[in-house]
Amino acid sequence: MLLRPQSLLLLIAAVLFDPARIGRVKSHQESGPWHCDSDAGIRIQSVFRPGIITVDGKVEDWKDVSGSDFALLPALDPDADKAYNAGKMTLKVVHDGNEAFFMLQIDGNYAYTQGDSTKCASVALMLQIGENATYHRMGGCEEEQNTCTNKTCLGHEVDIMHFSLGNAIPGRLYGRNSIDNRQGYGGDRFGNLNDVYAWNPHCRYLDGLGPSGNDTTAQNDWQGSWWHSSLTDHSGFIKENSPYASEGQKGTYYFEFSRPLRTKDSLQQDAQFTIGKSNKVSAAFWYPEEGKSWHGSAHYSISCDWILLDFVPAGSSELSSIAQSSSWNFATSLSLFFSVVALCLSMIIGHRLSTMSRTANFIPMENL
User: Fold this and answer.
1) Distance between first and last Cα of the chain
2) Which residues are listed as membrane-spanning (predicted)?
3) What angle do CA 322, 328, 330 make, to 5 degrees?
4) Helix (H) or strand (E) holding 124
């Protein structure tokens, strides 16, 4: 029996992104009892900054945005003695009232192997969807791979954006694209910037795919780009320029992402952002240390629990002082303007009165 192109694509995607292939079950078995010493009071602010960010991997446009620094700890064993030793992750978030923008900055020597994501750096963002979704165990549903469904794991949904660099050219835009979105699933055939949802580490799927069947209304709502400070680019890289820089050069990785605050998701597979409210978020980083390939669970995270992300309305937080300063400057300028106008009016009136007085005292010569 021949399959239609759309059905064939979804079948291929289901195989490629099967949870057992993304990260095999055994790779997520923890070696001992779970422990977490996170600071429950950590918060990140997404302030209102319209029109300042271009998602191109180059981060000069973020220089005036405040960020938060996090030590990167092993996700399955968050011990400070085992932290990523090249530096911390800086996380910055802004919004423009319609889109949310994220920037992740991590120190690390340049590593890139074309076509092999496990020998390149990789990052992910995870957001809570369901009210019962925990950070630990990626949603925390107790069901197994063959029993997890949108009913048995209801309330444990998490939203994941995962970006692997093996086929992503630095400075180019990946993720949301019309070709994959027409197929109605969250994959990205060009750069592996994928929109995923999960209930636990063994039950992860591209948006639109799942154990209950496929739904072609799903979309990949994320876009993103990456860069490394060792790269030198004057006209834009193409695939033939790979590996784009020399292996092992010291520097910093930069990742930029954007996504609508609200998506058209009706499947409980996307987190939704609301200005004035908070979301629970985490960020992860994979890196081929000592040139060795990384595997699914061998990643670092900014915390062993959720971090609160606040979407700040316009005029709040740090912008309030800017607004107050602008208002003061406007009021001062307006006052000065009216003072000058009043002075000019008084001079004109005085001149007119003086002229009228001289005219009133004028006596025609014939009356002398």
Assistant:
1) 125
2) 328-349
3) 100
4) strand 122-128
